[in-house]
Write a structure and sequence with these properties.
The protein is an alpha/beta fold and about 375 residues long. The protein has 4 domains: about 5-95, Chorismate Mutase Domain, subunit A, CATH 1.20.59.10; about 100-185 and about 275-285, Periplasmic binding protein-like II (D-Maltodextrin-Binding Protein, domain 2, 3-Layer(aba) Sandwich); about 190-265, D-Maltodextrin-Binding Protein, domain 2; about 295-380, Alpha-Beta Plaits, CATH 3.30.70. The protein contains 11 helices and 15 strands. The protein has helices spanning about 5-40, 45-60, 65-95, 115-120, 135-145, 165-170, 210-215, 215-220, 235-245, 310-320, 355-365, and strands spanning about 100-105, 130-135, 150-160, 160-165, 175-185, 190, 205, 225-230, 250-255, 265, 275-285, 295-305, 325-330, 345-350, 370-380. The chain is globular and about 80 Å long. It starts with a helix and ends in a 5-residue tail after the last strand. The relative contact order is 0.12.
Length: about 375
Protein backbone atom coordinates (compact mmCIF):
# COMPACT_ATOMS: atom_id res chain seq x y z
CA UNK A 1 0.00 0.00 0.00
CA UNK A 2 1.26 3.49 -0.92
CA UNK A 3 1.79 5.94 1.91
CA UNK A 4 -0.26 9.15 2.11
CA UNK A 5 2.52 11.46 0.97
CA UNK A 6 3.15 9.39 -2.14
CA UNK A 7 -0.56 9.41 -2.97
CA UNK A 8 -0.72 13.18 -2.56
CA UNK A 9 2.31 13.62 -4.79
CA UNK A 10 0.69 11.54 -7.52
CA UNK A 11 -2.57 13.49 -7.20
CA UNK A 12 -0.67 16.76 -7.54
CA UNK A 13 1.00 15.48 -10.71
CA UNK A 14 -2.37 14.39 -12.15
CA UNK A 15 -3.95 17.76 -11.30
CA UNK A 16 -1.12 19.53 -13.10
CA UNK A 17 -1.77 17.39 -16.19
CA UNK A 18 -5.48 18.23 -15.99
CA UNK A 19 -4.67 21.94 -15.86
CA UNK A 20 -2.42 21.66 -18.90
CA UNK A 21 -5.16 19.83 -20.83
CA UNK A 22 -7.72 22.46 -19.86
CA UNK A 23 -5.35 25.13 -21.18
CA UNK A 24 -5.06 23.22 -24.46
CA UNK A 25 -8.85 22.94 -24.63
CA UNK A 26 -9.29 26.71 -24.22
CA UNK A 27 -6.70 27.35 -26.94
CA UNK A 28 -8.66 25.12 -29.33
CA UNK A 29 -11.89 26.88 -28.27
CA UNK A 30 -10.37 30.13 -29.50
CA UNK A 31 -9.81 28.56 -32.94
CA UNK A 32 -13.38 27.22 -32.91
CA UNK A 33 -14.73 30.67 -32.04
CA UNK A 34 -12.77 32.27 -34.89
CA UNK A 35 -14.09 29.67 -37.36
CA UNK A 36 -17.68 30.24 -36.21
CA UNK A 37 -17.24 34.00 -36.54
CA UNK A 38 -15.77 33.83 -40.06
CA UNK A 39 -18.35 31.30 -41.27
CA UNK A 40 -21.30 32.84 -39.39
CA UNK A 41 -21.95 29.67 -37.39
CA UNK A 42 -23.92 29.75 -34.16
CA UNK A 43 -21.79 29.54 -31.04
CA UNK A 44 -24.22 27.40 -29.06
CA UNK A 45 -25.04 23.99 -30.53
CA UNK A 46 -27.30 22.36 -27.95
CA UNK A 47 -27.77 19.11 -29.88
CA UNK A 48 -24.02 18.58 -30.24
CA UNK A 49 -23.45 19.37 -26.55
CA UNK A 50 -26.08 16.82 -25.46
CA UNK A 51 -24.71 14.19 -27.84
CA UNK A 52 -21.14 14.78 -26.68
CA UNK A 53 -22.16 14.66 -23.02
CA UNK A 54 -23.93 11.35 -23.57
CA UNK A 55 -20.85 9.95 -25.33
CA UNK A 56 -18.57 11.08 -22.49
CA UNK A 57 -20.86 9.48 -19.91
CA UNK A 58 -20.67 6.19 -21.82
CA UNK A 59 -16.87 6.42 -21.98
CA UNK A 60 -16.86 7.17 -18.27
CA UNK A 61 -18.88 4.06 -17.46
CA UNK A 62 -16.35 1.95 -19.34
CA UNK A 63 -13.70 3.40 -17.04
CA UNK A 64 -15.89 2.68 -13.97
CA UNK A 65 -16.59 6.39 -13.44
CA UNK A 66 -19.94 7.70 -12.24
CA UNK A 67 -22.12 9.16 -15.02
CA UNK A 68 -23.26 11.97 -12.70
CA UNK A 69 -19.61 12.81 -11.93
CA UNK A 70 -18.75 12.96 -15.64
CA UNK A 71 -21.89 15.02 -16.33
CA UNK A 72 -21.11 17.58 -13.60
CA UNK A 73 -17.48 18.00 -14.67
CA UNK A 74 -18.09 18.35 -18.39
CA UNK A 75 -21.19 20.54 -18.06
CA UNK A 76 -19.01 23.01 -16.19
CA UNK A 77 -16.21 22.72 -18.76
CA UNK A 78 -18.64 23.17 -21.67
CA UNK A 79 -20.33 26.17 -20.05
CA UNK A 80 -16.96 27.84 -19.51
CA UNK A 81 -15.95 27.07 -23.10
CA UNK A 82 -19.14 28.66 -24.48
CA UNK A 83 -18.55 31.72 -22.30
CA UNK A 84 -14.97 31.96 -23.56
CA UNK A 85 -16.04 31.63 -27.21
CA UNK A 86 -18.66 34.37 -26.77
CA UNK A 87 -16.10 36.70 -25.20
CA UNK A 88 -13.50 35.86 -27.85
CA UNK A 89 -15.97 36.67 -30.65
CA UNK A 90 -17.14 39.85 -28.92
CA UNK A 91 -13.57 41.14 -28.69
CA UNK A 92 -12.80 40.25 -32.32
CA UNK A 93 -15.97 41.92 -33.64
CA UNK A 94 -15.16 45.07 -31.69
CA UNK A 95 -11.50 45.02 -32.77
CA UNK A 96 -10.17 44.36 -29.29
CA UNK A 97 -8.19 41.56 -27.68
CA UNK A 98 -8.49 39.27 -24.68
CA UNK A 99 -4.82 40.05 -24.01
CA UNK A 100 -5.64 43.59 -22.83
CA UNK A 101 -5.83 44.97 -19.27
CA UNK A 102 -9.33 45.43 -17.85
CA UNK A 103 -10.92 46.92 -14.74
CA UNK A 104 -14.39 46.34 -13.33
CA UNK A 105 -16.37 47.90 -10.48
CA UNK A 106 -18.69 45.84 -8.29
CA UNK A 107 -20.78 46.16 -5.12
CA UNK A 108 -19.08 45.39 -1.81
CA UNK A 109 -15.70 43.87 -1.15
CA UNK A 110 -14.25 40.39 -1.53
CA UNK A 111 -16.81 37.62 -1.22
CA UNK A 112 -19.99 39.35 -2.39
CA UNK A 113 -21.96 37.78 -5.20
CA UNK A 114 -21.18 40.92 -7.21
CA UNK A 115 -17.46 40.36 -6.63
CA UNK A 116 -17.74 36.70 -7.59
CA UNK A 117 -19.80 37.55 -10.70
CA UNK A 118 -17.39 40.32 -11.75
CA UNK A 119 -14.46 37.92 -11.36
CA UNK A 120 -16.21 35.34 -13.53
CA UNK A 121 -17.18 37.91 -16.16
CA UNK A 122 -13.60 39.03 -16.81
CA UNK A 123 -11.80 35.72 -16.20
CA UNK A 124 -11.19 35.26 -19.94
CA UNK A 125 -8.92 38.32 -20.11
CA UNK A 126 -5.22 37.59 -19.97
CA UNK A 127 -3.85 41.03 -19.17
CA UNK A 128 -3.82 42.83 -15.83
CA UNK A 129 -7.20 42.57 -14.10
CA UNK A 130 -8.30 45.17 -11.55
CA UNK A 131 -11.45 44.90 -9.42
CA UNK A 132 -12.84 48.00 -7.70
CA UNK A 133 -15.06 47.72 -4.62
CA UNK A 134 -17.98 50.16 -4.40
CA UNK A 135 -20.51 50.93 -1.69
CA UNK A 136 -23.52 51.60 -3.93
CA UNK A 137 -24.89 51.07 -7.42
CA UNK A 138 -24.52 54.81 -8.07
CA UNK A 139 -20.82 54.55 -7.23
CA UNK A 140 -20.38 51.66 -9.66
CA UNK A 141 -21.96 53.61 -12.53
CA UNK A 142 -20.00 56.74 -11.60
CA UNK A 143 -16.73 54.77 -11.74
CA UNK A 144 -17.54 53.72 -15.30
CA UNK A 145 -18.79 57.15 -16.42
CA UNK A 146 -15.68 58.85 -15.04
CA UNK A 147 -13.33 56.39 -16.75
CA UNK A 148 -11.98 54.90 -13.51
CA UNK A 149 -13.16 51.47 -14.63
CA UNK A 150 -13.80 49.87 -18.00
CA UNK A 151 -16.83 47.97 -16.75
CA UNK A 152 -19.38 47.99 -13.97
CA UNK A 153 -21.22 44.90 -12.70
CA UNK A 154 -24.83 45.44 -11.61
CA UNK A 155 -27.31 42.85 -10.28
CA UNK A 156 -30.56 43.61 -12.09
CA UNK A 157 -32.88 40.73 -11.19
CA UNK A 158 -33.12 37.55 -9.16
CA UNK A 159 -35.07 34.41 -9.99
CA UNK A 160 -36.65 34.42 -6.51
CA UNK A 161 -37.16 38.06 -5.56
CA UNK A 162 -37.54 39.64 -9.01
CA UNK A 163 -36.17 42.93 -10.30
CA UNK A 164 -33.73 45.03 -8.29
CA UNK A 165 -35.42 48.41 -8.43
CA UNK A 166 -32.44 50.45 -7.24
CA UNK A 167 -30.48 49.35 -10.31
CA UNK A 168 -33.35 50.15 -12.68
CA UNK A 169 -33.55 53.61 -11.12
CA UNK A 170 -29.81 54.14 -11.55
CA UNK A 171 -30.07 53.15 -15.23
CA UNK A 172 -32.69 55.86 -15.82
CA UNK A 173 -30.10 58.60 -15.41
CA UNK A 174 -27.01 56.76 -16.63
CA UNK A 175 -25.24 57.34 -19.94
CA UNK A 176 -23.57 53.90 -19.83
CA UNK A 177 -24.43 51.06 -22.19
CA UNK A 178 -25.19 47.46 -21.28
CA UNK A 179 -22.51 45.35 -23.00
CA UNK A 180 -23.02 41.95 -21.40
CA UNK A 181 -24.95 39.82 -18.94
CA UNK A 182 -24.20 36.94 -16.61
CA UNK A 183 -26.48 34.53 -14.75
CA UNK A 184 -24.73 33.69 -11.47
CA UNK A 185 -25.96 30.82 -9.22
CA UNK A 186 -26.85 31.98 -5.72
CA UNK A 187 -25.85 29.51 -3.01
CA UNK A 188 -27.03 31.27 0.15
CA UNK A 189 -25.51 29.80 3.30
CA UNK A 190 -25.38 30.57 7.00
CA UNK A 191 -21.79 31.54 7.87
CA UNK A 192 -20.51 31.74 11.45
CA UNK A 193 -17.28 31.82 13.40
CA UNK A 194 -17.92 28.56 15.24
CA UNK A 195 -20.02 25.40 15.01
CA UNK A 196 -23.29 25.90 16.90
CA UNK A 197 -26.89 24.70 16.82
CA UNK A 198 -29.38 26.78 14.86
CA UNK A 199 -31.35 27.34 18.04
CA UNK A 200 -28.37 29.22 19.51
CA UNK A 201 -28.32 31.86 16.76
CA UNK A 202 -29.60 35.26 17.93
CA UNK A 203 -28.57 37.69 15.16
CA UNK A 204 -28.38 37.46 11.35
CA UNK A 205 -26.48 39.95 9.16
CA UNK A 206 -27.04 40.33 5.44
CA UNK A 207 -28.04 42.53 2.51
CA UNK A 208 -31.85 42.94 2.13
CA UNK A 209 -31.91 40.85 -1.06
CA UNK A 210 -30.54 37.61 0.48
CA UNK A 211 -32.84 38.08 3.48
CA UNK A 212 -35.82 38.30 1.15
CA UNK A 213 -34.61 35.33 -0.90
CA UNK A 214 -34.26 33.18 2.25
CA UNK A 215 -37.45 34.39 3.94
CA UNK A 216 -39.11 30.97 4.22
CA UNK A 217 -36.08 29.30 5.76
CA UNK A 218 -35.64 32.15 8.23
CA UNK A 219 -39.32 31.94 9.19
CA UNK A 220 -39.15 28.17 9.67
CA UNK A 221 -35.81 27.84 11.46
CA UNK A 222 -34.90 31.26 12.88
CA UNK A 223 -38.23 33.03 13.48
CA UNK A 224 -37.06 35.03 16.50
CA UNK A 225 -33.62 36.25 15.41
CA UNK A 226 -32.76 39.90 14.98
CA UNK A 227 -32.06 40.84 11.34
CA UNK A 228 -29.28 43.38 10.67
CA UNK A 229 -29.53 44.84 7.15
CA UNK A 230 -26.12 45.66 5.67
CA UNK A 231 -24.91 47.50 2.55
CA UNK A 232 -23.69 44.25 1.00
CA UNK A 233 -23.14 40.62 1.92
CA UNK A 234 -19.42 41.34 2.34
CA UNK A 235 -20.24 44.00 4.95
CA UNK A 236 -22.32 41.36 6.71
CA UNK A 237 -19.53 38.76 6.60
CA UNK A 238 -16.97 41.32 7.78
CA UNK A 239 -19.19 42.30 10.72
CA UNK A 240 -19.61 38.69 11.84
CA UNK A 241 -15.90 37.95 11.41
CA UNK A 242 -15.00 41.03 13.46
CA UNK A 243 -17.48 40.32 16.27
CA UNK A 244 -16.35 36.67 16.65
CA UNK A 245 -19.61 36.04 18.52
CA UNK A 246 -20.75 32.52 17.72
CA UNK A 247 -24.43 33.48 18.07
CA UNK A 248 -24.11 36.09 15.30
CA UNK A 249 -24.10 34.78 11.72
CA UNK A 250 -24.23 36.07 8.14
CA UNK A 251 -26.16 35.02 5.05
CA UNK A 252 -23.79 34.93 2.10
CA UNK A 253 -22.20 32.67 -0.48
CA UNK A 254 -20.67 29.41 0.72
CA UNK A 255 -17.57 30.36 -1.29
CA UNK A 256 -17.16 33.60 0.69
CA UNK A 257 -16.51 31.81 4.00
CA UNK A 258 -12.85 31.07 3.22
CA UNK A 259 -12.08 34.76 2.60
CA UNK A 260 -13.06 35.64 6.19
CA UNK A 261 -12.11 32.52 8.14
CA UNK A 262 -15.75 31.61 8.75
CA UNK A 263 -17.56 28.27 8.67
CA UNK A 264 -20.61 27.34 6.57
CA UNK A 265 -23.19 26.19 9.15
CA UNK A 266 -26.04 25.53 6.73
CA UNK A 267 -26.11 25.50 2.91
CA UNK A 268 -28.85 25.96 0.30
CA UNK A 269 -31.26 27.98 2.42
CA UNK A 270 -32.83 30.04 -0.39
CA UNK A 271 -36.57 29.82 -1.12
CA UNK A 272 -35.70 28.66 -4.61
CA UNK A 273 -33.08 25.92 -4.92
CA UNK A 274 -32.47 27.02 -8.51
CA UNK A 275 -31.72 30.56 -7.49
CA UNK A 276 -29.86 32.80 -9.94
CA UNK A 277 -29.09 36.50 -10.09
CA UNK A 278 -28.84 38.10 -13.50
CA UNK A 279 -26.02 40.63 -13.64
CA UNK A 280 -25.55 43.20 -16.37
CA UNK A 281 -22.19 44.66 -17.33
CA UNK A 282 -22.15 48.34 -18.29
CA UNK A 283 -19.53 50.34 -20.17
CA UNK A 284 -19.20 53.73 -21.80
CA UNK A 285 -18.54 52.04 -25.15
CA UNK A 286 -21.38 50.06 -26.78
CA UNK A 287 -20.50 46.76 -28.45
CA UNK A 288 -21.39 45.26 -31.80
CA UNK A 289 -22.77 41.71 -31.62
CA UNK A 290 -21.92 39.15 -34.29
CA UNK A 291 -24.74 37.52 -36.25
CA UNK A 292 -23.38 34.16 -35.05
CA UNK A 293 -24.29 35.09 -31.48
CA UNK A 294 -27.80 35.27 -30.02
CA UNK A 295 -28.26 38.94 -29.10
CA UNK A 296 -30.44 40.75 -26.60
CA UNK A 297 -31.43 44.41 -26.80
CA UNK A 298 -32.54 46.35 -23.73
CA UNK A 299 -34.74 49.44 -24.06
CA UNK A 300 -36.37 51.99 -21.79
CA UNK A 301 -39.36 54.00 -22.94
CA UNK A 302 -42.39 55.98 -21.82
CA UNK A 303 -45.74 56.18 -23.54
CA UNK A 304 -48.28 59.00 -23.73
CA UNK A 305 -49.99 58.86 -20.33
CA UNK A 306 -53.54 59.59 -21.46
CA UNK A 307 -53.42 57.95 -24.89
CA UNK A 308 -55.38 54.66 -24.81
CA UNK A 309 -53.62 51.71 -26.41
CA UNK A 310 -50.18 53.32 -26.74
CA UNK A 311 -48.40 50.58 -24.75
CA UNK A 312 -50.24 47.85 -26.67
CA UNK A 313 -49.16 49.42 -29.95
CA UNK A 314 -45.52 49.41 -28.84
CA UNK A 315 -45.68 45.76 -27.84
CA UNK A 316 -47.59 44.81 -30.99
CA UNK A 317 -44.76 46.24 -33.12
CA UNK A 318 -42.49 43.51 -31.77
CA UNK A 319 -45.16 40.81 -31.88
CA UNK A 320 -46.01 41.25 -35.53
CA UNK A 321 -42.32 40.77 -36.41
CA UNK A 322 -42.23 37.62 -34.24
CA UNK A 323 -39.66 39.06 -31.81
CA UNK A 324 -39.77 37.83 -28.25
CA UNK A 325 -39.91 40.32 -25.36
CA UNK A 326 -38.35 38.30 -22.55
CA UNK A 327 -38.79 40.97 -19.88
CA UNK A 328 -41.12 43.95 -19.41
CA UNK A 329 -41.29 45.89 -16.15
CA UNK A 330 -42.09 49.43 -15.11
CA UNK A 331 -40.78 51.92 -12.56
CA UNK A 332 -41.80 55.45 -11.56
CA UNK A 333 -40.05 57.89 -13.85
CA UNK A 334 -37.39 59.94 -12.04
CA UNK A 335 -36.54 62.52 -14.70
CA UNK A 336 -37.07 66.16 -13.76
CA UNK A 337 -40.35 67.64 -14.96
CA UNK A 338 -42.17 64.34 -15.40
CA UNK A 339 -45.90 63.96 -14.73
CA UNK A 340 -47.15 62.56 -11.44
CA UNK A 341 -47.54 58.75 -11.63
CA UNK A 342 -45.66 58.65 -14.93
CA UNK A 343 -44.05 55.25 -15.51
CA UNK A 344 -40.96 54.24 -17.44
CA UNK A 345 -40.88 50.78 -19.02
CA UNK A 346 -37.83 48.53 -19.31
CA UNK A 347 -37.88 45.82 -21.97
CA UNK A 348 -35.47 43.08 -23.04
CA UNK A 349 -35.92 41.82 -26.60
CA UNK A 350 -34.29 38.79 -28.19
CA UNK A 351 -32.91 40.63 -31.18
CA UNK A 352 -29.83 42.39 -32.51
CA UNK A 353 -30.15 46.17 -32.60
CA UNK A 354 -28.25 46.17 -35.91
CA UNK A 355 -30.84 44.01 -37.68
CA UNK A 356 -33.12 45.68 -40.28
CA UNK A 357 -36.19 44.48 -38.36
CA UNK A 358 -35.11 46.25 -35.15
CA UNK A 359 -34.28 49.41 -37.10
CA UNK A 360 -37.79 49.38 -38.56
CA UNK A 361 -39.44 48.67 -35.20
CA UNK A 362 -37.62 51.48 -33.42
CA UNK A 363 -38.75 53.90 -36.14
CA UNK A 364 -42.34 52.65 -35.84
CA UNK A 365 -42.67 52.86 -32.05
CA UNK A 366 -41.32 56.40 -31.77
CA UNK A 367 -44.81 57.50 -32.77
CA UNK A 368 -46.26 55.93 -29.62
CA UNK A 369 -43.48 56.80 -27.14
CA UNK A 370 -42.70 60.10 -25.47
CA UNK A 371 -39.14 58.90 -24.75
CA UNK A 372 -37.13 55.98 -26.10
CA UNK A 373 -33.61 54.94 -25.14
CA UNK A 374 -31.49 51.97 -26.20
CA UNK A 375 -29.80 50.75 -23.02
CA UNK A 376 -27.58 48.33 -24.91
CA UNK A 377 -27.28 45.38 -27.26
CA UNK A 378 -25.16 42.47 -26.08
CA UNK A 379 -24.66 38.67 -26.30
CA UNK A 380 -27.56 36.87 -24.64
CA UNK A 381 -26.81 34.30 -21.96
CA UNK A 382 -30.37 32.92 -21.72
CA UNK A 383 -29.18 29.65 -23.22
CA UNK A 384 -26.66 29.09 -20.41
Amino acid sequence: MKDLEQCRKELDEIDTQILQLLKQRIDVAGDVALYKLINNKKVVDTKREQSKLHSLEQQGRELKLSASFISDVFKSIMAHTVSYELRYIAEKVNEKSLERDVSIAHLGTVGTYSHLAATRYIDAYKGKVELMSCNSFDEIVAAVESGKCDYGMLPIENSSSGSINEVLDVLQGSCTQIVGELFYPIDHSILGCDKIKLSEITDVYSHPQPVQQCSRWLKDFLPHVKIHYMESSSHAIHAVAKLRNKTHVAIASHNAAAFYNLLPLMDNIANNNHNYTRFICVSMTPVAVSESVQAKTSLSFTVAKYTPGSLIKVLDAFSKHNLNIVKLISRPRLAAGHDTWEEIFFADIQANIASPIMTQILDDIRTYTSSLKVLGCYPSQDHA
